[in-house]
Amino acid sequence: MSKEIDDEGSEQVKQAVFETIFKQSRFGVRDGLNEYDEDYTTFNDLGDLIPTEMQLAMARLETQTNDQDTALSATETAPPRTRQS
């Protein structure tokens, strides 16, 4: 057998052993010492709550957009420049 086949086979065996070991129920017990031991798969809906920072960012974006629109409309309504010789 070639070494490459042996390496691939031993890697598959290792993976199967790790899966078997870590699927045991004793490895699923939380000790409460980790910061993220809580269940974060579901969360409570906050409704229409928008964080303050997001409100400020939205206001800045709206102001910036309005400024750009104003500048654009000013250039569209300005009389065309004539060339002076």
Structural write-up:
By secondary structure, this protein is mainly α. The protein has a domain at 1-25. 54% of the residues lie in helices and 0% in strands. The protein is built from 2 helices and no strands. It has helices at residues 3-22, 52-77. The radius of gyration is 32 Å and the shape is elongated. It starts with a helix and ends in an 8-residue tail after the last helix. The mean pLDDT is 79.
Oligomeric status: single chain
**Roughly how much helix do the residues carry, as a percent range?**
40-55%
Number of strands: 0
- Computed CA radius of gyration, to the nearest angstrom: 32 Å
Shape: elongated
Order of helices and strands: HH
- Which parts are unreliable, with pLDDT below 50 for 5 consecutive residues or more? none
Average the pLDDT over all residues and give the rounded result: 79
Distance separating the two termini: 89 Å
- Content of β-strand: under 5%
* SS summary, helix count: 2
Largest sheet: none
Given the helix and strand composition, which structural class is it?
Answer: mainly alpha
